[in-house]
Every structure is written in C-alpha cells, then in structure tokens.
Design goal:
By secondary structure, this protein is of the alpha+beta class. A hairpin with a 3-residue loop joins strand 9 and strand 10. The two termini are 44 Å apart. The model has no long low-confidence stretch (mean pLDDT 89). The chain binds zinc ion.
C-alpha cells in the first residue's frame, strides 16, 4: 500500500507547497490544494492508515480512539474513550519501529497498529481530525440497520404481531411510487431463523426498508413495545445522519440518541450482537462537527461508480480483468465527454399537450404563474407534460408530495397536481397545500390532510428536491401518512 501511496503523497505535497500554475484568459493563476480526508470502507481505511485490519486480532480496532475490544460494548459516548492524536500515534509508531519479534507483535496488538503509514507524510493532513472518516453507508446501513431490522422482524413474528406471509404480502404490495427503485424483497422463515446478522439487502434497500417499515407493519405492533422503541431511536439517528444540513446543536442530540439506542439495544439483545460498527457511530457527532453532514462524504456515490465495474466484470472475460475494466471505463468516459452532458443536470419530460404561451393559458393558471414569477413575460412558452424527471427524481401527479416550507416546527407539504415547464427549463409545480396535523411517533411519520388552497411553486424554492409519497396504512384507517427521508432545517 505504501508503494502505491508514495508517488501520490509526493504529488500531493507539491500541490500543497508549490501549487500548479494555470493560464486563465491570459492571466497566470497559482492554485494550491491538499488532502482533506480519505474516503473508504473500514478495512480500506485501516489499511491506508496502517491500523489493524482485522477487528478480532487486535486489542484496539478503532482508528479514531483507543477503545479496547473488551469495553466497546459497555460505553457509548465518545468522551468515554481516549482519542488517538497525531502525537500519540507518532510515539506508538516509534515504539513499534524500535521493537522486534514478540515485543513488536505485542505493541502491534496493544496499539492496533500494523505500520507507520505514508499518509502521515502528507502535509497539512492529519489522520485523526476526520482524515479517515467513518462511513455512514458501511457502519449504519450495512452494519447496525441490517442487523436491527432483521431482529425486529424476527421479534414481531415470534410475538405473533405479524406472520412472514403477511409481511411479504405487505412488502410486495406497498405503494413505492416511481422514485424508489431499490425495493426490498421478500423474506423466508429460514432467513429469519439463521444466525446470519444480515438481511442480505443493499445499502439503498436497507435505507428504504427502514424508512417504510413503520408503515408496513407499525399497525400490527402494540404501542410501547421496547424492540419497536429501539428501532424508532435508530430512525431518529437516521434523520440526523442522512440530512444534507445538520445544525451544530443537533450533534449533541445525536450523541444522546446513539447512547440511548445502544443501551436499549444491549438490554434487549445479548451483548454479542453489538459489533464494532455500533462503536463507530459514537464518533459520528464529532465527525459532523469536523467535516460536515455525513451524506456529503459517504461512500454511496463510490458504490454507484463501482456498479459500473461490477456490470463490466459480468461479461465473463477474466484473462486480464484489470485491463478489461480499465478499457471499458475509458470508453464510458469517452462517451460521456463526447456526449457533452457529463456535468449537466438530467432533465427529461413525458408526453403532454403542445407548448403554448403564458397568455394562452386559462386565466387562473396564467395569473398564478405570473404571481409566482413576476418577471415572466406573456410570450414565455409553457409545456404541460404528464411527468418530468430532473436529476433522477420523477415529478408527477401519482400521489406525490413535496416540501414547500415549514411552520417553524413541522414541514408543510404540497400535494402535486400538475407539472409545467416554462421557457424550456424552469420547472413549476402546481400543488394543493396540505395541513400537517401531527407527527405520529409510533409510525415515525407525519399525518396530513389536503386543503383546497393551491399555488404554483418553483422547484428551486422547495426545501428539499425529494418527492415523498402519501400512504394509507394496511389496517384501512383513512389518514394519509408521509415519512421523511431526513430532518428538514430551513
Ligand atoms: Zn473509537
């Protein structure tokens, strides 16, 4: 690894100290840059940083703190652990380098360090202030959530709240809408009964299943069930961790939620169920303070990129797989550059009526559009398609809701009736205003009702570009429930 890192660190240090000169419109400009953090999964991060890669053959497995393998199941606050620092780490590496034989093994296991990493030579970079961040996709989705959602379903089946057949029926017949492509599949009794700690879902499937499971089976679970309460705590952690904006004050809330969740989880299950990934969550609040909201640097995007290589590797030619993948990736890049739309937002319209001007619209609609955008001219073209897809989000009138504002505490939703494209690229959404009645803790969702007030909102004025779906519960009650993807901070 250090052989690979060496030229990278050398170039990086040149960029940090001397920078590169770029000619911009006849002016010579000097740009400098540096490494902020290195994004990877836990094993790769530990490998890069020179830490032990195996969690079971070390007394200390965390690259952020000095937690022992004997104590991470008992304490759930980052302040309970001594943090690793550049100074402490350098001293430990010195001791490791000076030792030989059994003593070297002893230091290596005691400190959880394999070697002095080349990353330590990168200027203005520290591995310990968020330099090797913990990743929400691998820790919380593929680790904690997969395990907990499996244990929750198992508990509900054992307590006879729901049968496996009913769970599968509801999962298959849930109204996912047009925006949720990574749908969770059905389960079997064998999968529930196995010792495997996973549900064998992708990270995106796990995220979706956790968000919708209150709507799928919440009506079957009695209020106050402790396993359900524990899962609701996990969803509250999701709300902050997956938000693209996190006010600093919420990091303290997150700290308490994680400690409360882990303590309750431990009291409900044997402590052998608590894995090192549970521990990594205790560092999330400090990491958000250091680096910002976690979805800004999680590895979900890297996994999406990886899927390109996974598809290419399924072609069956393994004579020189590295060459095959490199070649196909270059061809893909060539296509993207030649098609000239690599960095442009994707905008796609469905079928609709012939474009007309603002002046030709029915009076009420024309005046609503002009009220929404006073500067718009009467000659601007208006196209009324059945649906619009922008940045992979589908806006249509199929039970879709958008967040048009807040009342200071709760979000205000708009029920999408129509979409209009004005002037070729401005997306306007025609919505009925909804009344946010209350937040139902048990279903972790807002209960809303439509009103007769309507208005037109510009897409860029929404508090979140996401389209949410209104749901009826399977028990037949009449209220409409909306589950958020994360907290909204205006
Ligand atoms: Zn730690």
């Amino acid at each position: 690894m250090d052989t690979i890192l060496e030229p990278f660190i050398k170039d990086l240090n040149t960029l940090t100290t001397h920078g590169i000169n770029v000619n911009i419109s006849g002016h010579q400009r000097n740009f400098k840059g540096g490494l902020m953090c290195f994004l990877a999964d836990n094993l790769a991060s530990n490998l890069l940083g020179g830490f032990k890669e195996s969690f079971s053959f070390s007394h200390r497995f965390c690259r952020t703190c000095m937690v022992k393998t004997t104590s991470y199941k008992d304490k759930f606050l980052s302040s309970d652990f001594c943090q690793r620092t550049a100074e402490i780490h350098k001293r430990q590496c010195d001791e490791l380098d000076a030792a030989e034989g059994d003593l070297k093994d002893h230091y290596s296991k005691t400190y959880g360090i394999n070697r002095r990493s080349k990353l330590m030579c990168a200027k203005n970079f520290s591995m310990f202030d968020g330099g090797l961040p913990h990743d929400a996709m691998h820790d919380i989705l593929e680790g904690v959530a997969q395990l907990e959602v499996k244990l929750l379903v198992k508990h509900c089946v054992n307590e006879k709240y729901i049968t496996v057949a009913e769970y599968n029926h509801r999962t298959e017949n849930f109204d996912y809408g047009k925006n949720e492509m990574d749908r969770p599949g059905i389960i079997t009794r064998e999968l529930l009964g196995s010792n495997d700690k996973k549900f064998h879902l992708s990270a995106a499937q796990t995220l979706l299943l956790c968000q919708i499971i209150p709507l799928i089976m919440g009506d079957c679970v009695p209020e106050g069930d402790e396993h359900w309460q524990c899962f609701l705590l996990l969803l509250k952690i999701f709300d902050i961790v997956f938000s693209p904006v996190v006010p600093k004050g919420y990091c303290a809330v997150l700290k308490l939620l994680i400690a409360e969740h882990h303590s309750l989880f431990k009291s409900l299950h044997s402590s052998s169920m608590i894995t090192p990934k549970f521990h990594f969550l205790v560092h999330y609040p400090d990491q958000i303070v250091a680096l910002g909201p976690m979805t800004r640097y999680w590895t979900m995007r890297h996994e999406a990129k990886l899927s390109l290589f996974k598809k290419a590797s399924h072609l069956g030619n393994f004579k020189n797989i590295a060459y095959t993948l490199a070649s196909r990736h270059q061809r893909w890049m060539c296509y993207q550059l030649a098609s000239d739309n690599m960095l442009q937002s994707c905008f796609e319209c469905g079928p609709g009526s012939s474009p007309s001007t603002i002046g030709q619209q029915p009076h009420q609609l024309g005046s609503i559009i002009q009220r929404a955008i006073p500067s718009i001219s009467n000659d601007a073209t208006v196209f009324h398609p059945k649906w619009v897809k922008k940045n992979s989000i589908n806006y249509c009138n199929n039970n879709c809701y958008v967040i048009i504002g807040t009342d200071g505490t709760d979000p205000l939703f708009g029920h999408l009736i129509d979409v209009y494209v004005v002037g070729g690229d401005l997306l306007l959404l025609h919505v009925y205003h909804c009344q946010t009645i209350y937040f139902d803790d048990h279903f972790h969702s807002y209960v809303i009702s439509d009103t007769t007030n309507m208005s037109i909102v510009c897409l860029q004025d929404l508090l979140s570009p996401f389209v949410l779906h209104g749901h009826k519960l399977f028990d037949g009650r009449s209220e409409t429930y909306i589950t958020m993807k994360h907290l909204i901070f205006s």
